[in-house]
Amino acid sequence: MNIHEYQAKQLLKQYGVAVPPGDSCHSVAEAKAVAERLFAAGQKLLVIKSQIHAGGRGKGTFKHGFQGGVKLVKSVEEAVSVAENMLGKTLVTKQTGPEGRVVSTILVAAAEKILREFYLAVLLDRANSRPLIMASTEGGMDIEEVAAHSPDKILKEHVDPAVGLMPYQARKIASALGLKGDVFNQACKLIAGVYKTWWECDASMVEINPLAIVETPEGKEAIVCVDAKIGLDDNALYRHKDIQEMRDLAEESPLEVEASKFSLNYIKLDGDIACLVNGAGLAMSTMDIIQHFGGSPANFLDVGGGASKDQVTAAFRIILSDAAVKGILVNIFGGIMDCNIIATGIVEAVKETGLNLPLVVRLEGNNVAAGKQTLAQSGLPLITGDSMADAAQKVVKAVAAG
């Protein structure tokens, strides 16, 4: 689950991480009040950020012509004008697609003078099953670009999960960033807080880009998280009711939201051949082989290893809710999964939905004979595939024929 920048900063602040003063606003009146408070506190410049789950906000364009989803303002009047042009308006960025996203929330925060920028992130290194802290002096850039062009500028520090982040490790990272004096001590505390946020919130990743040394209104130097992204592990959300409440359903595809109600892993794509598969690896392979034979997958849909008949029926309803779908490929390899449960679910779903699109089914594995018999006796006009390649070729051909 992804959360907004202002929510990420709320979590970080709970664990003692320094963030610029500011607040989220849902109305122009709220934005005006926050701006007045920050300017009264001595801030000379504020930043107003559109809160959507997409990158490239600063270079985005609102559909009514207003340029930029991130703006600097020098007065309350400017803040009000920007808020009026953002709230309730549709922002289009390189990641939203042409349809854009409606901005329902903005973050109004201090924009203190940035003196130096850094990169900091905590994630799980799956190669050795340990937390990994990554830091770089190249803040403000995509870490992929830094890795490609200046890999020597990325510091990696693994953490033993049994003991957690040790003080010497935080000092090692701060030293590698070239920090000294009071800012060094601040950074050590901040790094420890960022790691604790990742650990306590069961996050998949916490990314601070940029982490920056700023000049406060009092003329002192401080290190703060200017921007923050946190991705949460869906499998651990049951332990965090407060974080679950941060979920913004308006930022998610309606079909993906519906699928989550049935514990289905669904991601909508741009193609026209829907996939219903058990297992993420097999689902990826199925999408690849559809593409290989000239087709285009319409979704990633993993029903899991122990899907029920009701889940299969729900999966079909979700697939058919996508108007772009022109054919369906069911690819099941039964291990834990009983092929006959899938077959029964397919039959009921087709009858319930009145399916009139090409349907290709490939079953293999646990109880496959009973599954194939259920399909054969159903009287449905479906196409069977003897192998994954055979099934993929047949569905691509059926969709092309039209």
Strand content: 25-35%
Individual helix count: 13
Please tell me how large the radius of gyration is.
25 Å
C-alpha geometry: elongated
On the 0 to 100 scale, the average pLDDT is: 92
**How far is the N terminus from the C terminus?**
37 Å
The largest sheet, given as strand count, sense and whether it forms a barrel, is: 6 strands, antiparallel
Number of strands: 19
Low-confidence stretches: none
User: Can you give the helix content as a percent range?
Assistant: 25-40%
Please state the structural category.
alpha+beta
Overview of the molecule:
- This protein starts with a helix and ends with a helix.
- The protein has 402 residues and is of the alpha+beta class.
- β18, α12 and β19 (383-384) form a beta-alpha-beta unit.
- Strands 8, 9, 10, 11, 12 and 13 form a six-stranded antiparallel beta sheet that branches.
- It has 13 helices and 19 strands.
- α5 (167-176) packs across α6 (181-200) and α10 (309-320) packs across α11 (339-353).
- 39% of the residues are buried.
Please summarize what this structure is.
The protein has 13 helices and 19 strands. With 402 residues, the chain is α+β, with helices and mostly antiparallel strands.
